[in-house]
């Protein structure tokens, strides 16, 4: 279905892998082109002004524009684990980009591709799409689940809204903000005070012991 999110609809259901070639957020520290992943149950809206940062699960930089050779993207989903790998350097070897566990996607979906542009035009050519069924063993509890009725979701230790700018993506720690620096300094000060009190108590007890000994 055509729409405003890279040529496809917003508030979609399912998994989206975005290959973004242009940064809309001038304050971003990420290097573009940038590949990112997003899972949506229809309730999330893609924010173009922030390049989807608040709903991004993970991502990486990939120099895929204006190459004189073919570039490749491999997307693998098996037993709740989503991995994305790239081969954009014409070295015939895969490079890890995204690796996320806890991804739940229902069956009955379709594969699709779309593209969109703003004031700056760009050209995208998809030479081919190859699909493979993975033969893996599933836990017994998975056999009782009706995978046609589950909602797309991701079990993360960290909320996508906590994601911050990082050229390498994948939920790594971002720069320290003012309140984080304040908390670190406060914790360090409390630690110094505790160590000083403990040291004074130990020193006093040793002094008393030495006096009794002499």
UniProtKB/TrEMBL annotation:
**Main location per the UniProt record:** membrane
MF terms from GO for this chain are: D-mannose binding
Q: Which UniProt keywords apply?
A: Membrane, Signal, Transmembrane, Transmembrane helix
Transmembrane domains' residue ranges = 181-203
Domain L-type lectin-like, by residue range, is: 1-134
Location of the protein in the cell? Membrane
PANTHER family xrefs? VESICULAR INTEGRAL-MEMBRANE PROTEIN VIP36, VESICULAR MANNOSE-BINDING LECTIN
Please report the name of this protein according to its UniProt entry: LMAN2 protein
Organism ancestry = Eukaryota, Metazoa, Chordata, Craniata, Vertebrata
């Amino acid at each position: 279905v055509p729409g405003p999110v890279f040529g496809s609809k917003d508030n979609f259901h399912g998994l989206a892998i975005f290959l973004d070639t242009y940064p809309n957020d001038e304050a971003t520290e990420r290097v573009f082109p940038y590949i990112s992943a997003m899972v949506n149950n229809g309730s999330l809206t893609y924010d173009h002004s922030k390049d989807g940062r608040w709903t991004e699960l993970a991502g990486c930089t990939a120099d895929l524009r204006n190459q004189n050779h073919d570039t490749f993207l491999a997307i693998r989903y098996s037993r709740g684990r989503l991995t994305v790998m790239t081969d954009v350097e014409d070295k015939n070897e895969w490079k890890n980009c995204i690796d996320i566990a806890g991804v739940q996607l229902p069956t009955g979906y379709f594969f699709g591709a779309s593209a969109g542009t703003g004031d700056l035009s760009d050209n995208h050519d998809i030479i081919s799409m190859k699909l493979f069924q993975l033969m893996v063993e599933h836990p017994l509890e998975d056999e009782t689940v009706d995978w046609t009725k589950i909602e797309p979701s991701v079990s993360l230790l960290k909320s996508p809204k906590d994601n911050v700018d990082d050229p390498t993506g994948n939920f790594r720690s971002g720069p320290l903000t003012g309140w984080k620096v304040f908390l670190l300094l406060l914790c360090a000060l409390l630690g110094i005070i505790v160590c000083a009190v403990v040291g004074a108590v130990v020193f006093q007890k040793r002094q008393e012991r030495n006096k009794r000994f002499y």
